[in-house]
């Protein structure tokens, strides 16, 4: 039988256990009443610096689709011309070897080996040197505080492609010319090709113009059409380089015009004030005009098809008729001004493209935890950002919540940095004001600053390529016509007249190449800028007149530089050796 002490101890222990159970129960109840923890996570796309770099790299990738192809095309043109001329100069040697009994294969090996070595060494050297220098230089232009460490990778697949292209250019050129020449008889190969016979040209039929030309001019224009292959190759080469330069200037113009066009042609307000009190009016001496609107960030996706989502800024003005004073809604189909109606929403052009939407399409819009089904009533021009515009009445139709304006769109008298800061400080002191933003001056995240600088590289490379093309083709022109030029010098032409004899043809071909190149440049520019549209950016397709002028001036300067070099080369022609070389 337990003692009184044991009984008291047991009761005390039981009381403690009961008290502990009550505390645990109370703690459990409090824990259940406590709000559940919310866990948020972000991937690397949430990093602004990463997203900027990603968007810029995507734009440069679009440029890289076109420029290498055109550079390769011009390189193939130069290579074909050079190797063709080299084989043509050795016609007598080839004919002599054929007469001595050498096979066509043995004769061809000299030029095939030369072409293979030139193609392999040039492609590998250019590919490795290019991948070790240009990517690092471009990365330095695009890098920011978040991405500063460059990791170089040699893309061997691209180098192999360049190698194959180089071999096609060199070996293909040699094969074509050798096949043509080796079909001829040895006796024909050992004789120089007879000069092409002169023909009447279309210009001669225009008597009033033809009769006013002097002898030298008539000879030059006849020579232009006498050597049609060289004329076409020269025009195409110059046009390609001019087109590349114009496309580069056009890309720079489109990038630089993005922000001005967005905030001058589309959005005419400078500031957005976020409010906690609906319909509150703010006050500041720098405010010229203001209007109430619901401005919310929503997630939009198509109701059918791809499940691609886009973060969109929804703007629902309290007074829809006033919206045109703050935002220009211009239809992408008619070019006329769009008006908000209670029949649907107006979305921006890039959003419509990404969502595969058009007038009459249905879209899903997620506002907080609520899903709205909206109908597209129109598509408007816009360059930066995704926007969706609707009337308060239509918002009440598609939403379970009642419309309430959350913001004020502001027009400012002065947009200077100091005045903007002063206005922000004054507004934030007022009750109900939560935030003040200036979209135009927060648009550095559009990711186009580095792109404009990178374009200068392509312009410089295109200009250098233009110089090489002009020099190469002019040099081939002179070497092919050495006997002709020596003859007119023997006949008494002065050095300046001989230079003008050749330069006049180059001037005409350069002008034709520039005009043709402008057309190529416009096509290239439009294609590249459409491919470069990434994220919420839609580049304006603009090329300003300085781009046309500079591309033409640079090409003309290169033509002039080549003309000067040609002049000194023509002055030192040994007339007797040139005339006796084929005897």
Strand content: 5-15%
The total of beta strands comes to 9
**Elements, N to C (H/E):** HHHHHHHHHEEEEHEEEHEHEHHHHH
Tally of DSSP helical segments:
17
Radius of gyration, in angstroms, nearest whole number: 37 Å
Protein model, in words:
The protein is an alpha+beta fold. 59% of the residues lie in helices and 11% in strands. It has 17 helices and 9 strands. The protein has helices at residues 4-33, 48-89, 91-99, 104-142, 156-182, 186-189, 207-210, 215-226, 228-266, 349-354, 392-398, 417-428, 449-480, 482-490, 495-531, 545-571, 575-580; strands at 271-275, 287-302, 310-317, 345-348, 362-367, 370-380, 387-389, 407-412, 433-437. The protein has a 6-stranded mixed barrel. Helix 8 (215-226) crosses helix 15 (495-531). The longest helix is centred in the N-terminal third of the chain and has 42 residues, at 48-89. The radius of gyration is 37 Å and the shape is elongated. It starts with a helix and ends with a helix. The mean pLDDT is 80.
List keywords for this structure.
583 residues; alpha+beta; elongated; 6-stranded mixed beta barrel; 17 helices
Write the layout of secondary structure elements.
Blueprint: H1 4-33, H2 48-89, H3 91-99, H4 104-142, H5 156-182, H6 186-189, H7 207-210, H8 215-226, H9 228-266, E1 271-275, E2 287-302, E3 310-317, E4 345-348, H10 349-354, E5 362-367, E6 370-380, E7 387-389, H11 392-398, E8 407-412, H12 417-428, E9 433-437, H13 449-480, H14 482-490, H15 495-531, H16 545-571, H17 575-580
Helix pairs in contact: 2-5, 2-9, 2-13, 2-15, 4-5, 8-15, 9-13, 9-15, 9-16, 13-16, 15-16
């Amino acid at each position: 039988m337990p003692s009184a002490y044991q009984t008291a101890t047991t009761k005390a222990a039981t009381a403690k256990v009961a008290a502990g159970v009550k505390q645990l129960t109370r703690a459990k109840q409090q824990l259940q009443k406590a709000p559940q923890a919310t866990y948020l996570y972000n991937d690397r796309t949430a990093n602004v610096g990463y997203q900027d770099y990603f968007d810029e790299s995507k734009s440069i990738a679009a440029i890289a689709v076109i420029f290498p192809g055109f550079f390769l095309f011009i390189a193939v043109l130069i290579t074909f011309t050079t190797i063709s001329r080299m084989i043509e100069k050795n016609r007598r040697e080839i004919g002599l070897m054929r007469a001595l009994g050498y096979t066509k294969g043995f004769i061809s090996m000299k030029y095939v080996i030369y072409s293979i070595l030139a193609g392999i060494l040039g492609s590998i050297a250019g590919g490795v040197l290019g991948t070790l220098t240009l990517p690092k230089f471009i990365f330095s232009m695009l890098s920011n505080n978040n991405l500063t460490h460059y990791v170089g990778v040699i893309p061997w697949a691209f180098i192999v492609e360049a190698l194959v292209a180089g071999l096609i250019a060199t070996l293909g050129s040699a094969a074509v010319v050798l096949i043509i020449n080796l079909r001829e008889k040895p006796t024909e190969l050992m004789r120089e090709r007879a000069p092409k016979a002169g023909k009447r040209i279309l210009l001669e039929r225009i008597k009033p113009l033809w009769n006013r030309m002097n002898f030298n001019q008539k000879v030059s224009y006849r020579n232009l059409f006498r050597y049609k292959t060289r004329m076409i190759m020269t025009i195409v080469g110059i046009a390609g380089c001019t087109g590349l330069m114009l496309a580069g200037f056009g890309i720079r113009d489109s990038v630089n015009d993005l922000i001005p066009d967005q905030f001058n042609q589309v959005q005419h307000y400078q500031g957005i004030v976020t409010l906690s009190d609906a319909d509150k009016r703010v006050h500041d001496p720098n405010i010229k005009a203001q209007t109430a609107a619901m401005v919310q960030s929503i997630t939009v996706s198509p109701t059918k098809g791809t499940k691609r989502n886009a973060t969109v800024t929804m703007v629902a003005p309290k007074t829809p008729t006033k919206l045109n004073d703050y935002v220009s809604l211009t239809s992408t189909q008619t070019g006329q001004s769009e008006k908000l109606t209670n029949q649907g929403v107006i979305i921006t052009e890039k959003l419509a493209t990404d969502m595969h939407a058009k007038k009459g399409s249905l879209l899903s819009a997620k506002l907080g935890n609520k899903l709205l089904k909206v109908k597209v009533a129109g598509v408007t021009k816009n360059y930066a950002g995704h926007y969706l515009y609707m009337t308060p009445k239509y918002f009440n139709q598609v939403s379970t919540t009642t419309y309430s304006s959350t913001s004020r769109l502001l027009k400012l008298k002065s947009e200077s940095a100091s005045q903007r800061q002063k206005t922000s400080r004054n507004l934030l002191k007022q009750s109900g004001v939560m935030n003040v933003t200036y979209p135009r001056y927060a648009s550095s995240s559009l990711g186009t600053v580095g792109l404009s600088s990178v374009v200068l590289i392509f312009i410089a490379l295109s200009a250098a390529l233009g110089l090489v093309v002009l020099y190469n083709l002019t040099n081939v022109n002179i070497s092919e016509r050495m006997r002709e030029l020596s003859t007119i010098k023997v006949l008494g032409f002065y050095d300046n007249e001989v230079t003008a004899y050749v330069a006049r043809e180059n001037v005409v071909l350069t002008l034709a190449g520039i005009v043709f190149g402008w057309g190529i440049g416009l096509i290239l520019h439009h294609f590249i800028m459409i491919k470069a549209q990434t994220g919420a950016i839609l580049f304006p397709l603009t090329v300003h007149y300085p781009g046309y002028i500079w591309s033409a001036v640079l090409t003309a300067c290169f033509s002039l530089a080549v003309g000067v070099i040609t002049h000194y080369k023509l002055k030192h022609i040994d007339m007797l050796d040139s005339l006796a070389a084929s005897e």
